[in-house]
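Now produce a polypeptide, keeping tokens residue-aligned:
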Amino acid sequence: VWDMDAIAVRELDFSYGSSRILKKIDLTVPEGRFAVLLGENGAGKSTFLKLLLGELPIGGGEGKILLFGRDIRQFKSWQELSCVPQSGMASYQNFPASAEEVVQANLYARIGRFRFAGKKEKEQVRQALIQVGMEDFAKRLIGRLSGGQQQRILLARALVNRPRLLILDEPSSGMDEKSTEHFYRLLKHINQKDNVTILMVTHDRKRLEPFADDIWLLEEGTMELVKTRERQEENRDGDI
């Protein structure tokens, strides 16, 4: 039962020095939704993401960010959300780590960096790899995988902590058409079957349209909801 917003942004303003990046923006992602945030380079998407992930402080009275109903300034449950960063694979490209080691690395915050993963952790890693269809590649070196496969390993890494909210930043850059389609289908499956709320930042509106519940557009510092599934279905019913 969904009765809460995973993300609620209200009247958010943000400036770097004298240049205003975000202008009183509002955005809501109810739990259980697959939301997409579009915007050209320089529109303020990266700044917005950093604010959302607590990497930039939102300052005094410049609006609000609530995560699962809690003000981000007091928010402590960061394990409830997970992020797949842009070009996150770059740091592993020439690193002699296996797929399962990359996924397991995300558990260290919980098990302690110098402790070995026990049975429970190994099982969590296995489940995350199964979730993204990569269990057969567990022992494969990360640098030997294709772009699409690497992206799925990064997704497994984000899912291993069983987050309620998954944020992805341009996850399909560098992936071919077929891998991208496969990846979006996989995300939709995780959203619906595993009850994970998703917010994806991307340029790729055309291919994501069939999968998204809500599409937001950030343009010159202002935010607008440009599509919701319900509104689209109402319009379609009206055409009959």
The chain has a mean pLDDT of 86. The beta strands are 5-16, 19-30, 34-38, 64-67, 70-71, 81-84, 165-169, 197-202, 214-219, 222-228. The first strand starts at residue 5 and ends at 16. Helices lie at 45-52, 99-104, 108-111, 119-131, 147-159, 177-193, 205-208, 229-239.
